[in-house]
Specification:
This is BLUF domain-containing protein. This protein is α+β, with helices and mostly antiparallel strands. The chain has 5 helices and 5 strands; from the N terminus they run βαββαβαβαα. Strands 4-1-3-2-5 form a 5-stranded mixed beta sheet, sandwiched between helices. The structure holds flavin mononucleotide.
Length: 135
C-alpha cells in the first residue's frame, strides 16, 4: 500500500521568489529520488502539496515539512492509505507548479493522477480546483 498526505500552508513573507524557485527544484529532485509522487503548487503566497509514497517515507517527511520555517498555517487535508498501482511505480515523477506556469502542467498532472490513483482522484481534483480558485 502507498500512503498519501495532503495539506495547504502559507509561505513565510520573508521567503523570496528565488527561495521558492530553489525550494521547488529541490523538492522535485528529492521526491523523485525517494519515489514520492504527487504535486507541490505555489500560488499567491500559498502552498498546496500532495505527497504519495511509502507510508514511512511520507510520514517522516511530513514531520520535517511541518517544522520548516519557510511556511506556517499548515492545514492537513488528506492522511490515508491508497492502493498500489503499476502506474505510480513506473511513471514516478513529482510535479511542481508555481504562479507562472499555465494550466497545462496541472491538466497533465490530473490526467496522470486519474490513471494512477483513480479512487482518490476526485478528492485531489476538488482540493486543487478550490485552491486554484477555478470553481
Ligand atoms: C512547502 C514546503 C514543501 C516541502 N516539500 C518537501 C518535499 O516534498 N520533499 C522534501 O524532501 N522536502 C520538502 N520540503 C523541505 C523540507 O521541509 C526539508 O527542508 C528538507 O526535507 C530537508 O530536510 P533535512 O535538511 O532535515 O534533511 C518542503 C518545504 C516546504 C516549505
Amino acid at each position: 500500500m502507498r500512503y498519501t498526505i495532503s495539506y495547504v500552508s502559507t509561505s513565510n513573507p520573508n521567503v523570496s521568489d528565488i527561495d521558492i524557485t530553489q525550494l521547488m527544484d529541490y523538492v522535485k529532485t528529492q521526491n523523485c529520488l525517494l519515489n514520492i509522487t504527487g504535486i507541490l503548487i505555489y500560488s499567491d503566497g500559498n502552498f498546496l502539496q500532495v505527497l504519495e509514497g511509502a507510508k514511512e517515507v511520507i510520514t517522516t517527511l511530513f514531520e520535517k515539512i511541518k517544522k520548516d520555517p519557510r511556511h506556517y498555517n499548515i492545514i492537513k487535508m488528506l492522511d490515508k492509505e491508497i492502493s498500489d498501482t503499476s502506474f505510480s511505480d513506473y511513471h514516478s515523477s513529482f510535479t511542481v507548479i508555481s504562479d507562472h506556469d499555465g494550466p497545462i502542467e496541472l491538466q497533465k498532472f490530473l490526467k496522470k493522477e486519474k490513471l494512477s490513483n483513480p479512487e482518490h482522484f476526485k478528492s485531489i481534483q476538488y482540493l486543487i480546483q478550490k485552491f486554484m480558485k477555478l470553481l
